[in-house]
């Protein structure tokens, strides 16, 4: 990247999104879509003719395995948010103490007919990215909780089995959706937590879908009206900017 400042009409290419950031983005897209697909089948399995318990457990198991990949990808991205390049860092992606002023200035420039250019996310985009990331983390945590309480999968499954096992029952012998060997009082005590985690999980996914739709609309609008090349940048890593970027 050149250190000289471009003129108002000069067009320059900048390396912005590093490879790990781009890989996370597209892997996350694929995994979220896969989770939504399998989750949708789970919700409507009866209508689809999947009525056997083995089918229900099989779908949940598939959902959890995809969820593990989703969680690993998300955790790697969060770690990369502290060690990656400037534009990959969470401190640059998320709103900060000055973000409200930046947002007001951004809106003022747009209202004045100007076209401010950004290498990273613009002030509106930072709030959207924060919202999406918080939802992804919420979905991950509640999903792992349900994986442990529903079908006794790691990282919480063994602890849940040990808690639920009746006296003189081997916790490892407990099976998903089978009350054999389960302490009924402990199962009843755990049920509200399971229910809450499940509701938060589902509604977080609904909200994520809404934010994804808004995000796609905003990206396409910005690509067409404000700053061409932001979509291709998530493939190439490079942004083409006319004039001086606001966040160089």
UniProtKB/TrEMBL annotation:
Coiled-coil region list: none
Membrane protein topology class: Multi-pass membrane protein
Primary localisation category: membrane
Gene3D superfamilies given in the database record: Transmembrane di-heme cytochromes, Chain C (1.20.950.20)
Transmembrane parts of this sequence: 23-44, 64-83, 127-145, 200-221
Compartments where located: Cell membrane
Domain Cytochrome b561 bacterial/Ni-hydrogenase, chain residue ranges per copy: 16-237
Keywords: Cell membrane, Electron transport, Heme, Iron, Membrane, Metal-binding, Transmembrane, Transmembrane helix, Transport
Family per similarity comment: Belongs to the HupC/HyaC/HydC family.
Protein name: Cytochrome b/b6 domain-containing protein
Organism: Shewanella vaxholmensis
């Amino acid at each position: 990247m050149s250190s000289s400042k471009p003129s108002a009409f000069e067009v320059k290419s900048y390396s912005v999104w590093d490879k790990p950031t781009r890989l996370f983005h597209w892997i996350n897209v694929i995994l979220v879509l896969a989770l939504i697909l399998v989750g949708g089948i789970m919700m409507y399995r009866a209508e689809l003719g999947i009525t056997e318990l083995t089918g229900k457990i099989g779908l949940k198991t598939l959902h959890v395995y995809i969820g593990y990949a989703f969680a690993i990808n998300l955790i790697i991205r969060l770690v990369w948010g502290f060690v990656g390049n400037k534009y990959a860092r969470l401190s640059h992606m998320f709103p900060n103490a000055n973000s409200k002023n930046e947002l007001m200035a951004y809106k003022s420039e747009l209202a004045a007919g100007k076209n401010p250019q950004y290498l990273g996310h613009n002030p509106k985009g930072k709030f959207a990215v924060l919202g999406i990331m918080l939802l992804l983390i919420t979905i991950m945590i509640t999903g792992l909780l349900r994986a442990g309480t529903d079908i006794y999968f790691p990282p919480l499954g063994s602890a849940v089995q040990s808690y639920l096992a009746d006296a003189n029952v081997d916790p490892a012998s407990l099976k998903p959706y089978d009350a054999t060997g389960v302490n009924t009082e402990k199962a009843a005590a755990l049920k509200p937590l399971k229910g809450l985690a499940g509701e938060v999980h589902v509604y977080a996914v609904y909200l994520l879908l809404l934010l994804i739709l808004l995000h796609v609309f905003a990206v396409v609008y910005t690509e067409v009206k404000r700053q061409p090349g932001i979509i291709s940048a998530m493939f190439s890593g490079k942004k083409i900017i006319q004039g001086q970027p606001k966040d160089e």
